[in-house]
Structures are given as C-alpha cells and as structure tokens.
Amino acid sequence: VQLQASGGGLVQAGDSLRLSCAVSAGSGRSFGSYVVAWFRQPPGKEREFVAAIRRGQGSTHYADSVKGRFSISRDNAKATVYLQMNSLKPEDTAVYYCAADAQVILSSVRDVRGYGHWGQGTQVTVSS
C-alpha cells in the first residue's frame, strides 16, 4: 500500500487549505476496505491524531482541537481522501501525515499504532 500526501503550504491565520492523500491499495484489497486517517506532528512534539474516515458509509472521527473547522472525506472512485482545513490557526502548524489500514478497529482509530501504512507527510505552516 502506498500513500501520497499533498496540498500543504504556507498560509495566514483564518485561511483554508485542502490536503489530499492518494492511496494505492495493496493487491487483493480495494481502497474502500481501508480506514484512512490524518495525523500531524507539530515541531518538537509527538505525532497526534487529527481525523479519520472509516470504511463503508465512511463515518468520521475528529480530534477536539479541529472539530468544526476540519472536514475529512473520501472519493472511492479516485482512491483519495481529503482533509479540508478551514479557519486555520498558528497552532495547526505541523507536518501532516496520512495513514491507512484495512484492519483498524474502532478503539484504535485515533491511535498512531493502529495504522500500518503511512505517507511521506506534507508541511502546513500557519502564520499569525
């Protein structure tokens, strides 16, 4: 499984960005069978959960810090997951990573250890 994250950049507080994560599913599995999540790693801090979208009807999960500002969605035809980020704040500055796994259980959706496949990361910098 290969993941390619893109869409990061330098923006001002209050601006919006949309990140994309293109997923090349492994043999024998379709994109739709993967739970896909976004994590971020601020400078000098540990990687933290941002949002996830599950299989099937695509129920979503968000970190409290981004709820109401960020929105995760998936386009199964394009095998791509998006993270729409609105009302960005300086504290959103981080390297953003997408992650995927076909066997994530509900209790591990927010856990870095629940995902076996990771993209390379894309930098998001929000200036005040």
Description:
With 128 residues, this protein is mostly beta strands. Helices cover 0% and strands 48% of the residues. The protein has strands at residues 2-6, 9-12, 17-24, 35-41, 48-53, 60-62, 70-75, 80-85, 94-101, 117-118, 122-127. The strands form 2 sheets. Strands 2, 4, 5, 6, 9, 10 and 11 form a 7-stranded mixed β-sheet that branches.
Summary tags:
single chain; 128 residues; mainly beta; seven-stranded mixed β-sheet; four-stranded antiparallel β-sheet; 11 strands
Reconstruct the topology from this structure:
Layout: E1 2-6, E2 9-12, E3 17-24, E4 35-41, E5 48-53, E6 60-62, E7 70-75, E8 80-85, E9 94-101, E10 117-118, E11 122-127
Parallel strand pairs: 2-11
Antiparallel strand pairs: 1-3, 3-8, 4-5, 4-9, 5-6, 7-8, 9-10, 9-11
Number of helices: 0
Query: What is the rounded Rg?
Result: 14 Å
The structure class reads mainly beta
**Overall pLDDT, averaged?**
94
- Please bin the fraction of helical residues: under 10%
Unreliable stretches, pLDDT < 50, 5 or more residues?
Answer: none
Query: What is the tally of beta strands?
Result: 11
Encode the helix/strand succession as letters: EEEEEEEEEEE
